Amino acid sequence: MSLAVRPLARQAVEDRPEQKGRSVRVFSADISATGEPWLWALGGALALGIILIAGFLALIFWNGVTTFWPKPIEVVTLQGGTLVAGEPFRAGVYRPDAGIIAKLSSEQQAFVEENGGFAQRTLYRTANFDIYGDDFRWVSDYEVAKVDYPRDFYLFERQEWGNFVGRIKGVIIDNQPQEYVADVMARAQREARDRFNEIRSIERGDIGRINHRLEQERLSIRRAELRYGPAAPETLAATERAVARIAELNAEFTVHQKRIADIRGIDQRNRVVLEEVGGRTKETELSQIVRYYPSNAVTTPDKIGIYFSRWGEFLSSEPREANTQGGVLPAIFGTVAMTLIMVVIVAPFGVITALYLREYAKQGRLVSMVRISVNNLAGVPSIVYGVFGLGFFCYTLGITIDQLFYPERLPNPTFGTGGILWASLTLALLTVPVVIVASEEALAAVPRSMREGSLACGASKWQTIRYVVLPKALPGIMTGMILAMARGAGEVAPLMLVGVVKLAPALPIDGFAPFVHLERSFMHLGFHIFDVGFQSRNSEAGKPMVFVTTLLLLALIVLMNSSAIYVRNRLKRKYATGHF
Hints:
13 strands; five-stranded antiparallel beta sheet; 18 helices; disordered N terminus; 4 domains
């Protein structure tokens, strides 16, 4: 029955009451035949997936973007007169148990009963860990007598011990106690931070160079002993030369140490006396104050300046306070460097394997088994690759390299332990099945007629692959690279075994030959998220850093993938139109 006559047939059935039950069945069959229920189900599933992804991204974006915005400091007076000062962190509703309710006053019990047995509570970031032994405190609404926002309360971001919340009781400049004057302290704090950075520069520049040269001299002695023997004349001569240079280096080291001691002596004479809400005081060197501001008196332009200053510190400095504060520059560098090295390694292996399987290998049972094995490798848990990388790359290949090329460094390993090179190779093994499958599909999508036309014009098979097949398949191959980058950049489990560490402020690139040190351990944004969220002493203190680091990792992945997509689109346009 055609669609055109269905309305007439339905009308005819309605005129005959005995056919009404049958008409319902015919109508239901028509809907099922057109697939409308499945269409609605699939559309609903797609909409639900988009909503979940959008909600997840919105949660990360909002929490990440607002992490560095300055918050007010509340001074809460409890019913018993106790004072609590801190930044409101989050709030929630809970049901106090019978033991807690029994200890409350009659007014507090009535307050809880009026709310149906529930109570609202706020988590305050009280900071002052060196005084309180904790960073946070819960305060229930029934405990609160009043809440104030004093304008003389400051938030101090310190180099050690985390933040401090309290008043400025006094300033000590050149060991002379003085009354607090905003301009005087601001200038003294800037000068103190300059001295702090100067010390860091001396330690990592001059002293780092001296330590490197001292290590080279020690290794030269060990190298001569291994080559000529401990008592050989050559060894004795090398030892004499090395000892003379070591003495010179130690004298230079002493000069730099004295310079650092002089600077630290100046820092010790410039301090600030801080007072917490309960009246206890704490003296801190001005050089240890990273940033401070009156939270309840700061203006909107100043808040914007503090916000971007924190972002600048986050993107350009190293972590502090067990990675819960400071920056993530080493982790950014490690993530990007490892991903790029992984792509450089996985690209030729994946493409060459796909070329052989598609263009050269004789299709049969053996090739089918290889394809099945490659597809199965994509489903192997990533931690298995980490165990393989640790056993093969680090403990087999790395130790062999140390024995052949770095015997003077043993038993301290050079390549025989985790490093950025082994991590990149491990992730290359993890992602090579994705590249192989995508590249083979891209090669298969090139029309056979183009191959035959090239061969008919006298081109060899390699010339046909190089000038006809590969250019047409490049966009599809780039798709495989994009998928590999996205997966490799976010993997954490294998990296925990083959090179990633909690803190590695020294980058794999420096001014000492060979300048690029692929044997070094490194930091990774994915592991940084895991470490801050689950391994720090206070998970609440690390929660803001988890969100902002997750946002940064997603932004880096999007940036790298967008670059690859841009290249892929240009390749498509080039080989579709013949020009860029």
